[in-house]
Design a protein that fits this description.
Elements: H1 3-16, H2 18-26, H3 32-42, E1 51-55, H4 61-70, E2 71-72, E3 75-76, E4 79-84, E5 94-98, H5 104-112, E6 119-124, H6 134-155, E7 156-167, H7 172-182, E8 183-189, E9 200-208
Parallel strand pairs: 1-4, 1-6, 4-5, 6-7
Antiparallel strand pairs: 2-3, 7-9, 8-9
Helix pairs in contact: 3-4, 6-7
The structure holds S-adenosylmethionine.
């Protein structure tokens, strides 16, 4: 099938998608918002007063969900810092850094914004722009996932939580071993809004193992 035909089918399916329509109706910027909503609410991940980071945040669906839960009586109680290589229209209560997470100078700026405070929760939905070449895309995705894991291990408080989206396939088992070696418990989540045919899964990791951040 030609690329243009595939794109047309994707756009049609996207427009008819239940969660796309729900997102539009409820004012969320991405259908991904509902994936995070389900996990956050089921696993009680966000509480007032928390310090949270969102890696790969644009267009901002996850930020909207977290920001809503950090607001009590219309006031922000907590800190949500987000980063994306793409620009992001501001989300109420979110500090956003526009830059490349893999760039050392950008990362230093990002870390400086944490003011030395350990984090309670690190979220990562970071995903590279797809080239269409499966092996290249998977390798890039796992490079970013490993960077996100290293960041989480270094910046979380000992009982902190790390939630990351990854794709099953090449690199998955290796990454699973890495995240299990770094955290005390790792569980898998597949929220309803995640399409059955998608290989994406969410790894929920709790409690940094002693010694791994040294
Ligand atoms: C699936 S989208 C995130 C969707 C977001 N969670 C939401 O709910 O709106 C993945 C994001 O990762 C970002 N990204 C990819 N590589 C990046 C990098 N090196 N630095 C920062 N962001 C990156 C992309 O620009 C993209 O916006």
């Amino acid at each position: 099938m030609k690329r243009s035909a595939k794109t047309h089918i994707w756009h049609q399916r996207h427009a008819n998608d239940f969660y796309v329509q729900k997102a539009t109706k409820e004012g969320y910027r991405s259908r991904a918002a509902f994936k995070l909503m389900e996990i956050v609410d089921r696993d009680r991940l966000v509480h007032a007063g928390m310090r949270i980071v969102d890696l790969g945040s644009a267009p901002g669906g996850w930020c909207q969900i977290v920001s809503e839960r950090l607001h009590t009586d219309g006031r922000l109680n907590g800190h949500l810092l987000a980063i994306d290589i793409l620009p992001m229209v501001p989300v109420k209560g979110v500090e956003f850094l526009h830059g490349d997470f893999t760039d050392d100078a950008v990362l230093a700026d990002f870390v400086a914004r944490l003011d030395g405070h350990p984090l309670d929760l690190v979220l990562s939905d970071i995903a590279p722009n797809l080239s269409g070449i499966l092996m290249t895309d998977q390798a890039r995705a796992y490079d970013l996932a490993e960077m996100a894991l290293a960041f989480a291990v270094q910046r979380l408080r000992p009982e902190g939580v790390f939630l990351i989206k990854v794709f099953q396939g090449a690199g998955f088992e290796v990454f699973l071993r890495q995240i299990r070696a770094a955290f005390k418990t790792v569980t898998t989540r597949k929220p309803k809004a995640s399409r059955d045919e998608s290989t994406e899964v969410y790894l929920l990791a709790r409690g940094v193992r002693e010694g791994v951040s040294d």
